[in-house]
Amino acid sequence: MSFPKGFLWGGATAANQCEGGYLDGGRGLATVDVVPAGKDRLPVALGMKKMLECDSEHYYPSHEAIDMYHNFKNDIRLFAEMGFKCYRLSISWSRIFPNGDESNPNEEGLKFYDELFDECIKYGIEPLVTICHFDVPIHLVKTIGSWKSRKMIEHFTKYCETVFTRYKNKVKYWLTFNEINMLLHLPFMGAGILFEDGENKEEIKYQAAHHELVASAMATKIGHEINPEFKIGCMLAGGNTYPNTCNPKDVWRSMELDRENYFFIDIQSRGEYPTYAKKMMERQGINIKMEDEDDELLKNNTVDFISFSYYSSRLISADPAVNNLTEGNAFATLKNPYLEASEWGWQIDPLGLRITLNSLYDRYQKPLFIVENGLGAVDNVEEDGIINDDYRIQYLREHIKAMKDAITEDGVELLGYTPWGCIDLVSASTGEMKKRYGFIYVDKDNDGKGTLARSKKKSFNWYKKVIETNGEDI
User: Fold this and answer.
1) Mean pLDDT of 351-358
2) pLDDT for the residue numbered 327
3) Pick from 82, 86, 95, 190: CA 20 to 30 A from residue 50's CA?
4) CATH number of domain containing 56
């Protein structure tokens, strides 16, 4: 068999993109709740436009999302029908601590996740839980500046201790931060960071990164003390950067960009700041405040496995005049003439997944987990209700083949695969519903209209067969 016995096939979502119920059950306001759809979305996500309250002039898609808060039992039943072995989800921090700094957690929020995990366990589905997925209580942004402040470590570790203790017998696999490197690219969405005029933005981002890295190590330490059987991982927005030509300057520039993203995982997996990062900060005059105990904490509390998202590879030139850019999630990239692209300009590169798997495994020699991968596309519902998403099947098929090659030909240790948006949800980058990823269609449009009814796409039964055969029949 190409895929190992016990391989964790499943799907992935995030609370901020699917739960809705944004003030239900005592939940507090979080960063995602003030990021609107439309033209202001990107400026807010970048931390360049300050928006810490909701207004009547904008539409906020996270407020209802697909209302999984009230529909999770039916949704998990559909996941079970597909045969999921694993379901990656996130806990909403402000559902547990509405302001982020309370003495006691919100019991109603804790009970919600108890019920959700119980539903997974009922069907033999292993929860893979992201503790912080683009999710910071707004109160902490307003009062201490979010991850700009070292005080966030205390608040985050208390939150971690609470959920680790509560769910120690229900959840084995944990991720501390989703796409931790996104802090550098979308500072407010990724970490609740806002910039004021005259601030050294790069220094602020790397100081916030240090606080998150220390918090991640603390969480890993606490988790292993609460339950030594926990497997705690980190999470990277993955995808290798190719040089535009064989000009050594292009090759060097591609290496620099990859290192920018490896920086976080180098620390979480190896336990210390890499020398290239220290030299970069020295050159740029970036001074990070660290405590004496930070080095030892980072060194002694590295992660058990490395997870990552993969949607596309990237392409870069050292020549600033070469500026024919295309979209690519939060990463600007040149158009690769050898690759096709999605409707949103994301370049489709299955071999790039195999390259990324090998790059990460060669670098860290730790088990890997692909926790996001998929094709965002417009799905059309036929008159008879059928949704023929063959394009999605083709995309996933080719990426599964690349995974199989990495395992069988290259010896990469891969724990599982949870394609993104296994049920349609709100796009993090655009706030749209029409950019769909799921095996399950949700009746809702970009303006928030629709019945929220769920229906199976053609890919639903295809993926069910993939799981049944452990990846042999694709």
Assistant:
1) 98
2) 53
3) 95
4) 3.20.20.80
Q: Is residue 474 part of a domain?
A: no
Local confidence band at 1 (pLDDT 50, 70, 90 cut-offs)? low
Q: Does any domain span residue 178?
A: yes
Indicate whether 243 belongs to any domain: yes
Q: Please indicate whether residue 382 is annotated as part of the active site.
A: no
**Tokens encoding 118:** 């119980």
**pLDDT tens-digit profile of 383-395?**
999 999 999 999 9
Each residue of 333-354: pLDDT tens digit?
A: 899 999 999 988 889 999 999 9
pTM of the entire structure?
Answer: 0.97
pLDDT in the model for residue 322: 84
Among the options 272, 282, 372, 468, which is catalytic?
A: 372
Crossing angle for the helix pair 458-468 and 68-82, to the nearest 10 degrees:
50
Mean pLDDT of the chain: 96
Give residue 184's domain range. 8-468
Q: Is the pLDDT of residue 134 over 70?
A: yes
How many domains are there within the chain? 1
